[in-house]
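Session log. Operator J.P. requested a structure for one protein chain; no other inputs attached. Running the standard single-chain path with token output.
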Amino acid sequence: MYEGKFPFSNKVAKRSISLAVGAALLMAPLPAIAAESKTSPASSASTSAGAKKATPDTSSAAPKNDNAYVHKGSSLEVGEHRLLTHKDLVQDWDDLDPIYLPDKAIEAVKTALPEKDFEELFPYRLGSEEWHKVAKGKDYYKADQTDYFSYENLINAVAEVSNLKIKISTRKGTGEQEIHRLDKDARVETLVMRSANFNAKDNLTKEIETVIIDCGTFLKEGFKADRKRELAAFLANLSHETGGGWATAPGGPLRWGLFWNENIAGRTGQNMSNFVDPASRQQYPGAKGKRYYGRGPIMLSWNFNYGLFSSIIYGDKHVLLKNPEIVAEDGKIGYMTAILFWMTPQAPKPSAHDVMVGRWKPTDAEKEKGLKPGFGTSIMVLNGLEANLGETEGSPVERRAGHYREITARMGVDITGEKVDTLGMQPF
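Structure written below.
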């Protein structure tokens, strides 16, 4: 398991944390100006950051240099909503593609991996019948534990995420960002994050570069084999991070994927940190008595991650800040955090989604680092600490690749020639 970092920032990670089972870098928290949830009247004149790049505009708000352009960000305050017209959707969000809407989500999962195959691949998943048999009497056992990683929760998570678009607007050369979410069904956009210096006077003349992520593209891009490979890669990486197997485990170590959904040290109290970062406490205040240790398939950690993921999923940062245990109690929400992580690029890294479906094309510099499309590079996207590792005994890549080989074989997908380890690869 690893402590996930939120993927939207392109700032350099400032800290790392070692866990009982693994380690990963955490991002530096993004300082921003927070506001309570508000609603703005629908108006096509109320524009968010542009769909691709902000259009230069001269205005009375310009710095003293009258020849300088002012690049405006969103007219919304953080937490404020805007009901969109169709014109707004086209101009600001590249419109809505019907093939990426939620009603296609269930079909996408079932086509890639039927429920029967899922059940056989993960018999000891958290809360399953077999899990209860082996966990009963152990110190971590919960008699009321539901089937957290169930097939139904996976399908429902994909459907919910498919209803979201995310827009990340970055002032060129600064790392200062605004992040919007779009609820496709409601046609409502919300500004969920703005860096404190995004609209600082010195930054207003800097262009705004915008990336739009349609979360409905999960399992719906590329050839049919690519879509299956994507789900296999997603589940293989999660299975390793949450795995409970060992070399002589009944049925083999691969049967024990998706066994855990909480950081052991955090859950047991061995590590009593509340995981509230001082730099982001004002924006994402930790609730009294709550602790933000790793939970869910990606071990979501720290107050700023709970707050930002809450903003993306619910449109309200307070839901998970007040109730962080939801991530470990509700499998649908847990899967949603993992899919959002999977779908979103983190500069200089592409998204794992783009790596698996063929959208990402490595640059010459990336090729020199040994990076190429395929499962091995998806590992580098998720955890660069596992660089230059082969499928050798004891290597974390061995189990990741083992899960991937097994799941793709069950799907009938030939991965001959695909690089599934990280041997010879360097971090992005």
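Operator note: The chain has 15 helices and eight strands.
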